[in-house]
Amino acid sequence: LALLGPAPGAPSCPHGPALLFVKTSQGKEEGRRFYACSACRDRKDCNFFQWEDEKVSETRLAAREEYNRSHQPYFTHRQNVDRYKNFVLLPVSKRKFCQECQQLLLPSEWEKHSDHQFLCDITTAQLKSPSQLLYPLENKKTNAQYLFADRSCQFLLNLLIDLGFRRVLSVGTPRLHEMIQSKASQEEEFSVRSLLLDIDFRYSQFYTEDEFCHYNMFNHHFFGGEAARETCRKFLYEANGERVIMVTDPPFGGLVEALASSFKKLMAMWRGTEKEGHANKEMPMFWIFPYFFESRILDFFPSFSMMDYQVDYDNHALYKHGKTGRRQSPVRIFTNLTPSMIVLPEEEGYRFCTVCQRYVSSGNQHCEICNSCTSKDGRRWKHCVLCKKCVKPSWFHCSNCNCCTLQKHSCEKTGIGCFVCGKAGHKRSACPSLS
Ligand code: SAH
Ligand code: ZN
Ligand code: ZN
Ligand code: ZN
Ligand code: ZN
Questions:
Q1: Which of 2, 157, 166, 432 has its CA 20 to 30 A from that of 31?
Q2: Atom 20 (ligand 1): residue with closest C-alpha?
């Protein structure tokens, strides 16, 4: 399956304009092109499908429009903001949250939810950390909501403050947004502001239209239309020299080209706010993503480099920072800022490599032959003279495949490299990087 990208005139599903795909085989495009939902890679979540050359009747178009309308959230963002205002006026004893509907309830609504589970006595502190109140939408194929561990979130925030940024465009980073919002409301001198762009509309219950935009990062769709787009544009305008950075932590589903295309549009929006100043510059960005997507990200953003910092999550069984025997997280920060400026915590073992001019993880040894710190996963890698590069410690050189790989592998040639890691011998679904 290959993505042909956002196409002009594409039909829409409830998640905005669909993306154009084509089936590929052996690297060649094959068969009819079709449109499918940009946001949901699981047909169960959104089954939108249309052949590119399909004639759609007026009746079906009308039915589709009606379907899209009826699949929008029950309350508008505006209504949710008004509801919140009323909610905070209630005494704590009357503040209920329906866990089934994931919704703050006003007393007149209790009845309707009477056979649902409630959380009661919702405090102001709870309202300030919605990511704790809401359950994470973990369904892998769509939301893949994996929340930063506090340590990683705090690290990111301190880092961008130290770098001098005062505005954060939080794209799919509700927990970072929430940390900024809550500090801003509690600490007088704290002057950082954040705008959250996320597809999870539940957050509209807690944030105003200036703090949250319902947004799809796979097709750059603002559900709130031109007004929301304008909010974002205004936010990106660096009034009083307040510098902006975009931080994003997208689902790792693999539509890197769709993400890159949206992020380029956000960069263009930023560039457009400043006539002369930004002409040839890029909006500073942290793109948080697994290390095995490095080459894919660099394809689209050659100015980016990958930092060694391992981003940890709260609710991710694999990437959690354990008390004993930490599982190493494969998630990294990709950035277009100068690597030497990204200071990583020495107390966690990171050190500065003066040759590479960047912080590296403790196990990452500088290879004299490659003349760089070559480890991607934090373990010490070894140099293979035949491959002329450093490889994972567990790999061996296979003379059949003429490259280094796992000792246990089948020497079959598929001709075309894996979509994820670029190596031959397996397809994306069997990529060892993903397991
Ligand atoms: N680590 C981050 C959360 C990352 S999980 C934090 O703690 O703040 C991925 C986030 O992207 C989730 O908030 C999810 O709702 C959002 N998301 C998933 N698909 C999206 C899409 N198509 N458009 C915009 N946001 C999306
Ligand atoms: Zn309910
Ligand atoms: Zn080497
Ligand atoms: Zn080798
Ligand atoms: Zn692979």
A1: 432
A2: 199
